[in-house]
């Protein structure tokens, strides 16, 4: 068994995802939230489509005073101003009449009967057609995650539907007879800490996922039945927890062989979490084997599952921002070291309680600092950061 360098494993997972990217579908705008643009978003018209008043006031032509000849509200079709010395009252967002030379703000005007006077500001007080974008201009590329802001932009361009990649469907299987699903641990039994948390990480990565299944019995038949059942239920991706090694009750590898799977990645040169795996099954489906230790499982999630899901959704490969270390972080020999860090004052600091079986450090971290193989990261060094997949507003 040959393990894969960490950066190569991430790239392999992304390539596997792009090779099985979900087919595009057109959906109504409100249903697109959280999905991914399958084609570029281009304007169907100029934005704005017509000259639009930026203020409430008077659209005027020629020198003051101006005789009031009408009113234009938002939604009206404005007739042109045909003669000097005339004006129309105009509302913010209304169409500016042809022939308008200035818009005089209402708060800077004086009205006497049907005459208006005042000094217009020198700069135009309206938006011109195409000021924001010209018809046919690409606003967002394919692969952009759809947010409420993207939906609003698409609506402003005139879209009723957009072409998107649907969310991959994921299932979580928990392996291990020793696990408890409720109450405190004790007397040789430990509480399952992965089944409750992995679905949340998967949702933040763009997948649809239901309740975890398990603990699955520590037999080969039970493993095969559980995996097959998850795929038969429509899963594009199955995430399993535990059983990624070759111990007496580790049945994942034999189960994958029985199911006709092939390895995309089988163990990764990273600490913690090296006994992770990603396997491809017939029909463009995948299984990610996450180690049983909780922090190692999250390392596997951000190392293999995050790039795989990005590829399946047609999104760009996850890029790693750089952080400056506020304290040194030792390396792990020939392995990449993913070290949990918190961000304070713009600097990244390692956190305590980061054993592979611990979650206390993870719960207060922004992500993992990447220490390259064969190196130690000194205070002040700039290193890549793998952010935890959080929702907007969650990061501290």
TrEMBL record:
**Residues annotated as domain MoaB/Mog:** 171-311
The UniProt keywords, alphabetically, are: Magnesium, Metal-binding, Molybdenum, Molybdenum cofactor biosynthesis, Transferase
Question: To which pathway does this protein belong?
Answer: Cofactor biosynthesis; molybdopterin biosynthesis
Listed InterPro entries: MoaB/Mog-like_dom_sf, MoaB/Mog_dom, MoeA-like, MoeA_C_domain_IV, MoeA_C_domain_IV_sf, MoeA_linker/N, MoeA_linker/N_sf
Enzymatic class:
transferase
Q: Does the keyword Transferase apply?
A: yes
Biased composition (Basic and acidic residues) is annotated at: 128-138
Needed cofactors, names only, are: Mg(2+)
Q: Which reaction does it catalyse?
A: adenylyl-molybdopterin + molybdate = Mo-molybdopterin + AMP + H(+)
What are its E.C. numbers?
A: 2.10.1.1
Q: Could you tell me what this protein is called? A: Molybdopterin molybdenumtransferase
Species name: Planosporangium thailandense
């Amino acid at each position: 068994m040959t393990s894969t360098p960490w950066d190569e494993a991430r790239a392999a997972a992304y390539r596997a995802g792009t090779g099985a990217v979900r087919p595009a579908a057109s959906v109504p705008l409100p249903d697109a939230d959280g999905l991914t643009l399958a084609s570029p978003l281009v304007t169907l018209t100029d934005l704005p489509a017509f000259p639009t008043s930026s203020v409430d006031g008077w659209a005027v032509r020629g020198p003051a005073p101006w005789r009031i000849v009408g009113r234009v509200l938002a939604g009206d079709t404005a007739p042109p101003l045909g003669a000097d010395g005339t004006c129309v009252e105009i509302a913010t967002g209304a169409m500016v009449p042809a022939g308008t030379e200035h818009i005089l703000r209402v708060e800077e005007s004086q009205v006497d009967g049907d005459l208006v006077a005042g000094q217009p500001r020198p700069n135009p007080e309206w938006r011109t057609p195409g000021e924001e974008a010209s018809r046919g201009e690409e606003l967002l590329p394919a692969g952009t995650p759809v947010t409420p802001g993207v939906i609003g932009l698409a609506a402003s361009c005139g879209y009723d539907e957009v072409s998107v990649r649907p969310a991959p469907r994921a299932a979580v299987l928990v392996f291990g007879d020793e696990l408890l699903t409720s109450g405190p641990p004790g007397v040789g039994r430990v509480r399952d800490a992965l089944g409750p948390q992995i679905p949340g990480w998967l949702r933040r990565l763009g997948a649809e996922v239901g309740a975890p299944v398990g603990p699955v019995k520590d037999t080969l038949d039970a493993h095969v039945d559980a995996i097959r059942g998850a795929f038969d239920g429509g899963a594009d991706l199955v995430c399993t927890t535990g059983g990624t090694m070759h111990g007496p009750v580790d049945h994942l590898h034999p189960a994958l062989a029985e199911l006709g799977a092939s390895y995309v990645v089988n163990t990764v040169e990273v600490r913690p979490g090296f006994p992770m795996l990603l396997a491809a099954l017939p029909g463009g489906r995948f299984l990610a084997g996450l180690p049983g230790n909780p922090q190692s499982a999250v390392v596997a999630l951000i190392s293999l599952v995050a790039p795989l899901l990005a590829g399946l959704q047609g999104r760009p490969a996850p890029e790693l921002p750089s952080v400056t270390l506020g304290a040194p972080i030792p390396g792990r020999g020939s392995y990449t070291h993913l070290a949990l860090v918190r961000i304070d004052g713009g600097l990244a600091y390692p956190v305590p309680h980061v054993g592979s079986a611990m979650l206390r450090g993870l719960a207060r971290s922004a992500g993992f600092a990447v220490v390259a193989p064969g190196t130690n990261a000194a205070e002040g060094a700039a290193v890549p950061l793998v952010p935890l997949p959080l929702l907007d507003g969650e990061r501290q």
